[in-house]
Amino acid sequence: MSGITTINPATEERIGSYDLMSDAQVSDAVQACHAAFRDWRGMPVEDRAAVIRAIGGKLRENKEEFAALMTREVGKLIGDSRDEIELCAAICEFTADAGPRELADEERDIPGGRGVVSYAPVGVIYGIQPWNFPCYQAVRYAVANLMAGNGVLLKHAENCTGSGLMLKRIFEAAGLPRNLFTVLLIDHDQSDRVIENPLVRGVTMTGSDGAGRVIAAKAAENLKKTVLELGSNDAYIVLDDADLDVAVEACVQGRIYNNGQTCVNAKRFVVTDRNYDAFVERFAEKMAAIEMGDPTEEATRLGPMARSDLRDKLAEQVEESIRKGARAIVGGTVPDRKGAYYPATVLVDVAPGQPAYDDELFGPVASVIRATDDADAMRIANDSRYGLGGGIFSKDVERARRLASEQFDTGMISVNGFNVAIPNMPFGGVKDSGYGREHGGFGMKEFVNAKSVYLAEA
């Protein structure tokens, strides 16, 4: 039986090692989660909400320890790690507040009586999650499904195994019944068998669109519903009337947040001809000033990427883009230093056929694209197989709102700013960025049985 070893991407030092579970242990874990679910589903929704609220409190109590662990495991800036814990606590609070209302029975008039729509939990939900937000990625789907009354399994990314196990301890310390949230230390073949297990009633996954196709196919083969969040190549549009001070500042923040490793990072910067030269000059100047450093230091603005293989893939995408006509005016080369570091990078002359235009560059690399005018900028923004997030910069906020609602083919749009996730707003995308929604009350109903109950008049 092989195991997992976690490595600090900043120092290349070993953090910990973990044994993979045997097939029998996995089967027992699924059975135990299902047994816990059978008790949990009968608990009044208000009581479940109280446990969810307590989880938020425990997350805050353990914020410093958990944040330090995430920074060691995936290289997040320590301030970003703390912010992640706060976001997760806020998700717990929103879910506890909104859950009883969102999951309450609804009455409707029907011929000859009353109709009742009730939302019943369906069972054990299996989540396959990535490493870039070790706490948030798990909390995002787990808390919503626990609120709905389901049981939850987590297969976390190997390099943040410690974070997954710490989250389990925090959940149970807050009063969540044992085994209701279960972390599986398993390989890909075992994961497929978890999806096949008849006690598993739904699958949710965050990752690449390639991996999403594999998971969705396996789930469909077993008639399991899926929710998929599959990354993106988010376009931030700088229109003719944009405030460049606002646009440049937000675009820099949007590109390097979480060391550039966020599905909703700003990645493509589509700038109209009127603003292009000024934007590039100012944006490049600010990106060039961002220095790499120790992610545990408060002043560091750019830490390492989460693994050296991910850094090497990003470097290959940049090199291929340059071979195909792009130019790196900032950064663009792997530094000669220990750790999985890659510098803040700005590419111009970006065009279709280059990875910088077509694909997701999951790291601190900005692709700047020239548009002739506002209409052309919107065309370029939508010229992507992805559609998760995006942004519009314009002094005419109402016009930007109309463009966001009516023309931008993506799931989440920031106007004159950059946002990652807000608990009371839906999170999710379209096209190759996946389907389904989390947050905003939507996630609580993705894996429930919406029952129709017909009450005839006496």
Summarize the structure.
One of its GO terms (molecular function) is succinate-semialdehyde dehydrogenase (NAD+) activity. By secondary structure, the chain is α/β, with parallel strands linked by helices. The protein has 14 helices and 18 strands.
Provide mean pLDDT, rounded: 97
The helix content is 40-55%
Shape: globular
Low-confidence stretches: none
Main β-sheet, in a few words? 7 strands, mixed
Radius of gyration: 23 Å
Instruction: Give, in spatial order, the strands making up the sheet with the most strands.
Output: 12-13-14-11-10-15-16
Query: How many β-strands, per DSSP?
Result: 18
Report, as a whole number of angstroms, the end-to-end distance: 63 Å
Structural class: alpha/beta
Percent of residues in beta strands: 15-25%
**DSSP summary: helix tally:** 14
